[in-house]
């Protein structure tokens, strides 16, 4: 019973599984890359450039989470 309570508390604080993280990350990252590099499906870009742009997106996300949190526990 304590394990369930702990897991519920962690979820309330924004913790997630790796699958949940990826599912939430990918749509926004995909849109961000397309907005920065264009919507043409057949365009080719160097992986270093794509990684660099993805790194910026991830760093912004990390800073937002660090500064504002993910899902602060409700105050009662």
Concise structural overview:
It contains three helices and no strands. It is mainly α.
Structure description:
By secondary structure, this protein is mainly alpha-helical. 70% of the residues lie in helices and 0% in strands. α2 crosses α3. It has helices at 2-12, 18-37, 47-68. The chain is built from 3 helices and no strands. It has one domain (2-68).
Radius of gyration: 17 Å
The major beta sheet can be summarized as: none
Contiguous helical run count: 3
β-sheet strand percentage: under 5%
Q: What number of structural domains do the residues give?
A: 1
Mean pLDDT over the residues: 86
pLDDT < 50 stretches: none
**Which series of helices and strands comes N to C?**
HHH
Give helix % range: 55-70%
Distance between the termini: 23 Å
Given helix and strand content, the structural type is mainly alpha
Shape: elongated
Number of strands: 0
Which key features would you list for this structure?
3 helices; mainly alpha; 76 residues; 70% helix
Q: What's the SSE blueprint?
A:
Layout: H1 2-12, H2 18-37, H3 47-68
Helix pairs in contact: 2-3
């Amino acid at each position: 019973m304590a394990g369930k309570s702990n897991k519920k508390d962690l979820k309330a604080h924004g913790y997630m599984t790796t699958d949940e993280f990826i599912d939430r990350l990918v749509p926004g990252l995909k849109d961000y890359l397309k907005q920065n590099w264009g919507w043409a499906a057949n365009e080719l870009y160097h992986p270093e450039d794509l990684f660099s742009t993805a790194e910026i997106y991830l760093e912004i996300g990390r800073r937002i989470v660090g500064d504002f949190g993910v899902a602060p526990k409700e105050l009662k």
